[in-house]
Amino acid sequence: MKSGIIKSRKTLLALLCANALIFAGCGAEEEESAVPLRTEQSEEEDAVVSTEEQKEVPSESHAQDEEVSGAVVDQKQEEIAAKPEEAPSEKGEELWRAQIRHYYGGILSQIIGVRQLPDGELDTSSLDAGFGKMRDNHFAVIDIDGDGREELIVSYVNATMAGMMEIIYDYDPVLGELKQEFTQFPALTYYDNGIIKAEASHNHSQGEFWPFALYQYDSDSDSYVEIGYVSSWDKEIADEWYEGQPFPDELDVDGDGTVFNIRDMGGNSGDYEDFKYNQADYEEWIQSFIGGAKELSIEYQPMEYESFADFTPAYLKLLADEAGKERTDTASDLGLLILNEDHFLDAAQNLLAENYDVKLEQPEPNFEEWTIGLKDGNEVFSFEALNAGHIGYAEEKVEDVTIFGIYPGISVDGAWEKLKDYGFYASSYPEVENCLITGEGFGNVSIWFSAEDNKVTQITVGPYCAFAG
Fold it and tell me: How buried is residue 347: exposed, middle or buried, by Cβ count under 10 Å (0-12/13-18/19+)?
């Protein structure tokens, strides 16, 4: 049996550097350095591919020492990606809803962590100049289109006028797809019949009436389509149109000095001759769309981690509860401590010392963040208090101690199967074998293991966030 996990501080630091990609800590600060955007995920996650620069993977990593072939890992990734997501009726409405919110938590993490949308750029000039904070923007999670599934509304207002936007995202966990349903300037009124009234960012009409467009939710395309646009011309403000065209008094039937241009799918162009409608025409037109509809009240939350901090933990705990129904050893699972304990390293050390006669030592006096756990004189456990904290488990299984159901000696296939039940899927970084994560946003977990002869030899687990520096 090998004598230990880590023999010196030098070796420890090499391990931490090699795994910097895998085990990024999950802080919630706005000034985090740029890291990879969301990439293609499987089973529980999305098919959105981002364009952010990828983190550099160190050339010397423990993954390169693995003897498990890439074909085994590729096969496992393909199996997870190919497995269709279960419908809400099969896995429960609560879990289905939690899965969607978990995904939205990843998007929100990306916005506040690296100031990026999953499918586009953000105007950060105001933030960079010190005018306000990211938290001055807002979001809401609500079934805004009435399809029975919650959408994510991102209201980004701390920007230049051109950079302000409100976006509706819809994540379909069955298809594993994220769709942008709608985006416009954030001066919106939502109605319960699927209509959105979107006011223009500037009044480019020839009157005091503020122009706006109407959008209607279309279930076939799962998006909002424009169904009309209205602007006005006030004689008192502009007696002549461009190229000297006079105000059309003959069309101003009600004599109030205002005519409207109402464009719909039939298509007026907005030219001079299209300003031909009176107040009564406008009222009839607008009432035909929103006459009996009620305005929806949206509960927006500040764009900060505290506003969605429960999204991912709630989802992972539901999965853990489901996965634990067939287990009798969950009380000795060190991975579950990450989900349930604020100080999971202390909890893990106390559990092992009190119940399994594990002796704890700090082999490097000048490196207090590193602790090892010895069982019968062999280094089996390790505890690293940097980068959000990580637990190592190697060489031999100690009684019923596991990490999310896996342990040294379990087959690689068996490890992947058990980890899937807890929401883990293959990391998108192919340079690292047998690296799995539960998601890329704040509050997730990463696990990496090495193997020999298709048997797991060393496991490392800890909190994870792709958007933390």
Answer: middle
Across-strand partners of 230?
Answer: 212, 262
Please, which residues bridge with residue 384 across strands?
370, 390
Q: What is the pLDDT of residues 418-463, one digit of tens each?
A: 999 999 999 987 667 899 999 999 999 999 999 999 999 999 999 9
Segment 245-254, tens digit of pLDDT = 999 999 999 9
- Return the closest-CA partner of residue 194 out of 157, 221, 230, 231: 221
Residue 379 CA to residue 2 CA, distance in Å, equals 9
Does residue 205 fall inside a structural domain? Answer: yes
Helix ranges, 329-441 (H): 334-340, 344-355, 412-421
Quote the CA–CA distance of 108 and 469 in Å, as a whole number. Answer: 16
Q: Is the pLDDT of residue 309 over 60?
A: yes
Q: Specify whether 257 is located in the same domain as 333.
A: no
The pTM of the full predicted model, rounded to 2 decimals, is 0.82
Q: Domain range for residue 199?
A: 193-293
Q: Which amino acid is at 5?
A: I
